[in-house]
Design goal:
By secondary structure, this protein is mainly α. Helices cover 64% and strands 5% of the residues. A two-stranded antiparallel sheet has the order 1-2. Helix 1 packs antiparallel against helix 8, helix 6 runs antiparallel to helix 8 and helix 7 runs antiparallel to helix 8. The longest helix has 25 residues. It is elongated.
Length: 188
């Protein structure tokens, strides 16, 4: 067993590598730019939402309070007529990337910490690089990516976007596994 305190350097290195790789994926490669589309007549929809602006949060339309309401003919008619969707509202005002980037780095640290914890709890000092890479990388991949599957299943996220998220997660898992294997403590 390797204590988490002995893995602080690879935890931070992994988080930094993933944060940088994420920036490259989104700003240089830009392969996620097609994940979102413009609404038809966006300005009319924005004007309608400004008339009665929803508070920041998640919304579903048509909305049903419970499964009993969901089964009513009136609700089913709304579902058939459409539109059907989910909407996430953020606070209005000037947008800054600072807070999301800080939060993303914290997420990277937390995932790296869990990958290090699992690897440290299951592998002894001196374990071969590839074995550390396998364990830590698998935990990181699962942490970064598998949650996105439920968004396609339940929220209607396009599967093409989920596939790209999984590819990102594979990259992030490899970087995390690589950092853990590179800085894994030697046998004493």
């Amino acid at each position: 067993m390797v204590p988490l305190s002995a893995l602080l350097v690879p935890i931070v290195v992994a988080a930094v590598l993933v944060h940088l790789a994420s920036a490259l994926v989104h700003m240089v490669l830009q392969w996620h730019r097609t994940d979102y589309q413009r609404l038809p007549d966006e300005e009319a929809i924005r004007a309608a939402l400004r008339k009665s602006p929803p508070a920041p949060g998640q919304y579903m339309f048509p909305y049903h309070a419970d499964m009993k309401e969901f089964k009513t003919p009136e609700y089913q008619k709304k579902f058939e007529e459409g539109p059907v969707g989910m909407l996430t509202m953020r606070p209005s005002g000037k947008y800054s990337m600072t807070a999301p980037l800080i939060q993303w780095f914290i997420v990277c640290l937390v995932i790296s910490m869990f990958a290090a914890y699992v690897a440290g709890a299951t592998l002894p000092p001196g374990t071969d690089y590839l074995k550390v890479f396998q364990v830590a990388g698998t935990v990181a991949f699962a942490s970064y990516g598998l949650g996105t599957l439920s968004q396609s299943v339940w929220m209607g996220k396009p599967w093409s976007s989920t596939i790209k998220d999984l590819a990102d997660s594979l990259l992030y898992g490899c970087l995390t596994g690589g950092a853990m294997g590179w800085r894994w403590p030697h046998a004493m």
